[in-house]
Design brief:
By secondary structure, the chain is of the alpha/beta class. It has one domain: Divalent-metal-dependent TIM barrel enzymes (TIM Barrel, Alpha-Beta Barrel). α1 links the parallel β1 and β2. α1 packs across α8, α2 runs parallel beside α3 and α6 packs parallel to α7. The protein is globular. The relative contact order is 0.14.
Length: 273
């Protein structure tokens, strides 16, 4: 089992602090966040910054599994769509420089004025372009399964991308996210998505009560062994497909410290392997 950590869990630590925590916990890799607000890398970071990150991570005996960005597919406005594509192209060069294998982007947010069918058409056209851009750079682009958008469920993902998966384009399977919106039984999702799964995010949730109305199912993060998801069964089902990618920890539950959180997740997931 190849284990990575999402640096969004340690934005207050700075990149080197996050990497040190990952190394001390026995992880194999880090997935670095790039965002407009900075996180660990700003959106305008040049390739030289990727080279610096690569060297820093290597000093701790790890490597960079992926670059997580927040560029989004499916914008109806052509100017915004072009701006997003330009950002993707720039960040791909950063990903290549840092030696990242995976490059994460977001699926479309629902635009009721445009309508689903038109957004689907735009998204599929962009996906073909992005998959070719990834192939030219020998990286893998993934779209995250995520609520508050049109990739909340395995069914939505299949409708958007069926027939477009390639060696350089697939999805991030995140069953924790679809506990909020788009719920389908996790093992059915694995069966539906199959070899479209290029990466896996690992977290767990538990529903909670809230005052109605609620647009999404209220939930709170909880440790992997205490939530709704049966991670031993999910890991077994994913591995049975021949999956050989990363299980990237994205656990937002409460621990006494980040060091304890990182180590506990590593020990739990290694035991499943």
């Amino acid at each position: 089992m190849k284990l990575s950590i999402h640096t969004a869990l340690a934005t207050g630590e700075g990149l080197e602090g996050a990497v040190k925590l990952a190394a001390d916990a026995g992880l194999d890799a880090v997935d670095i966040v790039q965002a407009e607000a900075g996180a660990h890398l700003p959106n305008d970071a040049p390739p030289q910054e990727g080279e610096r990150c690569r060297a820093l991570v290597a000093e701790y005996g790890l490597h960079i599994s992926g670059l997580t960005t927040y560029y989004r597919l499916g914008h109806a406005d052509s100017a915004e769509r072009n701006a997003q594509m330009a950002g993707v192209a720039s960040s791909m060069e950063l990903a290549v420089a840092m030696g990242a294998r995976y490059f994460l982007i977001s699926g479309p947010a629902w635009d009721p004025q445009t309508g689903y069918e038109k957004q689907r058409e735009i998204t599929r056209e962009q996906t073909v372009q992005i998959a070719q851009m990834a192939a030219d750079r020998d990286i893998i682009v993934t779209v995250e399964q995520h609520g508050a958008g049109l990739t909340a469920s395995a069914g939505q993902i299949l409708d958007l991308f069926r027939g477009l998966a390639t060696a350089n384009f697939g999805v991030v399977f995140d069953p924790g996210n679809c506990l909020r919106e788009g719920y389908e039984r996790p093992l059915v999702q694995v069966d539906m998505l199959g070899d479209m799964i290029e990466a896996v995010h690992v977290k767990n949730m538990m529903t909670r009560s809230a005052e109605p109305p609620q647009e999404y199912i209220p939930y709170e993060p909880i440790r992997l062994d205490r939530g709704i998801l049966d991670w031993p069964a999910i890991v077994a089902a994913i591995n049975a497909t021949g999956y050989d990618g990363y299980f990237t920890v994205e656990d937002f539950s409460e621990f006494d410290s980040l060091a304890e959180k990182f180590r506990w997740n590593v020990d739990y997931l290694r035991a499943l392997a």
